[in-house]
Each structure stands twice: as structure tokens, then as C-alpha cells.
Amino acid sequence: MEQLNWTVECVAFVIMIGLSVVVGLYYGCVQGKQNTVSEYLLGGRHMAVLPITMSLITSQLSGISLLGIPSEVYSYGTQYLIFTIDYVICSYIIIYIYLPVFYELQSVSVFEYLELRFDSKIRGFLSIIYAISVILHVPVVIYVPAMAFSYVTGLNLYYFTLIICGICIFYTTIGGLKAVVWTDAIQSFFTAVSIIIVIVLGLIRIGGFNNMITANQESDRIEFFSSVQRFVALPTFNEARKSLIFFAFGMGVIKLFSGMTGLLIYATYKDCDPTLANYIDNDKHIVPFYIVDVASKIPGTTGLFIAGVVSAALSSMSAQLNTLSGTIYEDLIVKTMNVKPSDLTASIIIKFTVVVIGVICTFLVYMIEKMNGIIQVSISLNSVTIGAVISVFTLGITFPRANSRGVMYGMLSSIVIMVWIVSGAQIAMYNGELKFVKKNVSIAGCPDNVHFRNHSEFSGLYRMNADVYVNPNVNKIFTLSYMHYNTIGTIIALVVGIVVSLMFPTEQNIDPKLLAPCIRKCMYLKNSTKTKCEANKTEEYQLVSQNTKL
Question: Are 195 and 66 in contact, with CB atoms under 8 Å apart?
């Protein structure tokens, strides 16, 4: 690989970091000190569509997508990219079912809905579950760019983690949602440019798009068969809907571009796998290795890409910290105090919460390094709680007969079962008792002086199916693909929640605003029909009475 010009690379990186700090200082010290809850958490509800959309895309993207998706596609093929279709389907569902309810509430915390629909216990419990999920997810978000930066520069991973987290905590604490959104918008520029440059350079190197597709087809790699707080920050529902549509489109494009990077990496190294050739320790480093290899001829490109990866991570972390601080304040602290503090006191509490959560997440990075696969770790940890979160809102918004007991049993069932599945699978993989089959790689084109790595990774295991090698003693449920985890967790919670609610019905006086518009309409039509039927019966009774008298 070419020697990098570190002066130019560092300048590209430092510019991005400097802009993040400047934006935080501007919104924290110049334009206002963000001393009210509305200003700090919702930007005064006067944000514009473009920055909100860019913020949503960047914060949901993270380095997990930029580094994890290409690595996933390189190792396992394009099956993961089927998730791109999910964004279209989910966005349509959110626009017509979930978003109208939450936008009408205009709440700082979406969990306020749960108290209105069910009770304070459900709200408090799910707030804790959400806090746990964020604290588990953010360390993955931090680890990914730290790992890439460490590989490219040689700087200790943990030193970089402390530096980058300190910067993120600083501008999130000082600037509030406005700083988060506008920093995300700026960082999205670095992210988009870095992805485009890498794709263009990769296509030039392998000789074009057709060569990329051909190489990946020959190896069977091509195969195909939430954020509410920032939507509420927009002034009208139509703008919130537009932002969601643009967000879905942007996320789909980014996912496809990231997947394309994975295809390019395979087309480049199809005859000499970097892991087997001992150039890198494992597939986690495949993208940084590729970037340095391909982009080293153009000064500043590597620094720009690393800046893009770090930008995406900062965006995700800052958004999560901002949202979670508001949730903890509204759903836990205020409820515990039984007294609503002044705006100044509330602002101080929220900012202190950001710092505490940020520090906890920073130190949890040490745990993430021991786990397998970037995308797999991210989805596996999220799936422990995401089924419970999705189900309780879905039951509340779409199932009028759902009650507190039902949703509580549903959440607990989902969490317990998913903890068992996820932890069992991770332990089995850590002990070498479970391995998922990767796509074929080759070392036929490697130089003669390369010391190849031993590739007997399936010894002692039997091939259960085309995708899995497993020890006979491992429970078969642990061999499920992590891509099904979210669906399984959600279905468990929904089924249990509905069954228990029907078995133990309760009297509920539900405000129609807490239900999806389509459900409100159905209830209105049902009530109207019932009223008409009752009116007809009354008229019939009166006619019969009159005839009897006659």
C-alpha cells in the first residue's frame, strides 16, 4: 500500500472535528444558552425540514453502516441489503399510523403517550428499557470509528475513544437539539463525500461497474430473496411527513452505497483475501484496509473517509444522548421528584444526565471489542429490547382492547426470551461452537512471500445447513440468523400482549387521539352503525306500541 501523507489526512479530519465544536459553542453560547426544556430538547419546535432530514439520516447511519455493511456484504453477500425495502414499508406505516398520534401529542418524551394510554408503570418500565437499549447501542457506535481510526493511524483505540466521546458530550451538552441537528447536517456532507469518493476510486481500480457485478455473481454474493423527537421539532405535520419520506429515501440510498462498497472490496480482493493473507486480523478491519489501499494516491481522501465515519458516529451518539436525557428527565426524574423544576434547573439536570450517560457508554466500549461482527453485534444488542418497544406502542395505537397487564406481560416475555437467544448465540460463537458460513474467498492471486493463516475454523463442528456449522450440544434456536431477531421479539410481545389483554379485559376510557387515524375511523363507523341500529329499534318499538293501542 502507498504511504499516506498524514499532514493532509489530519487536516481533513481536524476540520470536521473543529466544526462540530464550533456549532456546539454557537448554539450554546451565542444564539442562546438552551436553558429551557423546549429549546434544549426540541429546538423550540421551529426547526426546518432539510436539517432535520439530514440529521435523521446521519444519526441513523453511524459508522456501523459505513464499515459494517461493506464487511457484511464482503463476507456473506447482499442478503442484508433486503433491509432497504423495509425502510419504504416502515416509512409508509409510520406516516399513516404512528406519526399522526405522536405529532398531535407534541411531547418531549414519546413515552408520555404510554401513561395517557395505559398507566405510569408502563411508561416508567419502558423508559428504563429504552435507556438500557441506548446504553448498549452507543458503545457499538463509538467502537466502530475508533477501531477504524486506530487501524489507519496506529493510535491506541481507547485513547481515541476518550477524545471523540469527550467532544461529542461537550457539544451535545452545550448546544442541545439545535447543535445536534446542525452538526449532523454538516457531518452528513463529510459522510456523503467520503462514500462517493471511495466508490468512484474503487470502480476505477477494478475497471468499472460490470466487472464488479460479474466478480460478485461468480462467487454467489449477489442474492435477494425511531427519532420521533426530531419530527416533533418541526412546525407542521406536513413538514414532519416530508422529512420522514426524505429520510427513508436517503437511508435507502446510503445502505445501497454501503453495500456497493462491499461488492467493490470483493471485486478488488477476489483472488487474495486480506484476512487469509494475514494483512488484517479479521473482517472488522477490511474496510479501513481497503480505504488506505485504494485512496492513498489522493492526499486527504483517507482522512476524509475517516472523518465521515467519525461524523456518522458522533451524529448517532449525540442524537441518542439528547433523546435519552429528555426521556430520563421527563419519565424518571420528574416522576420521582413529584415536582416540576424550573426551566433553568431542568436544563442543568438534563445536561448533567447527558454527561453521565456519555461517560458510561464510553467505558462500555471495552466490552464491545470482544464480540463478533459489527452489524451482527449492533442488531443483536438492539433486538433484546426493540421488540418490546415496538409492540407496546403498536398495541396501544392499533388495538383498543389492549390493557396494561397485557402489554406488561408481552414486554417481559419478549425481553426474557430475546436475552436467552442473543446471549446463548453470542456465548456459542465466542466458544467456537457456532459459526455462520461465509462466502468463498481465494488466495490464488496472493504474492508468493505471504504467510497464509490457517483456515480450519470449522473443525469439531457439523454442517447443520448451507449457512451454519454448529456443535451438536448447542441449542438449535441459537442458530437462528440475527436478521430475524427483531421480528421474533416483536411477534412474541404482540401475541402475548393480545392474548393476556383478551383473557383479562378491563374497562378503559380511551381518548381517540391516542389511537391511529384508521382505528379512530373504524370505531366511529362502528359507533355510528350501532347508534343507527338502536334508533331503528326504538322506532320499531314505537310503531308496535301504537299498533297495539289501536
Answer: yes
